[in-house]
Design goal:
By secondary structure, the protein is mainly beta. The protein has helices at residues 70-73, 126-129, 148-151, 153-161; strands at residues 15-23, 26-31, 35-40, 54-60, 63-69, 88-94, 97-103, 105-113, 117-118, 132-138, 141-146. 12% of the residues lie in helices and 41% in strands. The chain has a single domain (16-161), classed as OB fold (Dihydrolipoamide Acetyltransferase, E2P) (Beta Barrel).
Length: 178
């Protein structure tokens, strides 16, 4: 009796790990590599003369972090209906240090295939285009990926004022962390 061995062909599938967040009824993604921690909404201290997208300052493990209001950046109205119990601060790792994002809620950590990543459609409004890197096309619909570099308080002004924002796919090289 002859036994045939068949070699299974395995295709390597690259994945991006993302954290889903909610602003109003909309879902967005943040690269997990850019997220340090998610905390319950904390008391934010006013920051006089700051731009309107700075929600305030928060204390985090002995540091004071600027907290960015994603609602304001995305052109949404302030919400009085967001429950304090679901609002969160997402502590982010930026090129110039830590900062926080104030969001209405945090969903799950997803591992999405890089093949589902697409550039932004031309129909996305300009203000959002400058904050988004692209989107993942999932069964439930598009999951826009926020560009962490453009969310840093020091980079927001140039991201909002610049007409030049590249929308490239996340890079995956052997030396880079996905």
């Amino acid at each position: 009796m002859t036994m045939l061995r068949t070699a299974a062909v395995h295709e390597e599938v690259l994945h991006d790990d993302v954290c889903s967040i909610r602003i109003g009824e909309e879902r967005f993604a943040l690269r997990l590599a850019d997220v340090l921690e998610v905390t319950a909404a904390v008391e934010l201290h006013a920051c006089p003369l700051s731009p309107p997208y700075i929600a305030g300052l928060m204390q985090y493990r002995g540091e004071v972090l600027a907290t960015v209001c994603l609602r304001m950046l995305l052109g949404m109205q302030p919400s009085t209906s967001v429950a304090r119990s679901t609002a969160r601060c997402v502590v982010m790792i930026g090129a110039r240090g830590l900062f926080a994002l104030f969001v209405d809620g945090v969903g799950e950590v997803l591992s999405v295939a890089t093949s589902t990543y697409e550039p932004l459609p031309a129909t996305v409004e300009t203000q959002r285009q400058r904050l988004l890197a692209g989107a993942y096309k999932l069964e439930q619909g598009l999951l826009p990926l926020l560009d962490a570099k453009c969310l840093e308080p020091s980079a927001i002004r140039s991201a909002l004022c610049s007409g030049m924002h590249s929308h490239t796919a996340p890079s995956h090289t052997p030396d880079s962390k996905p």
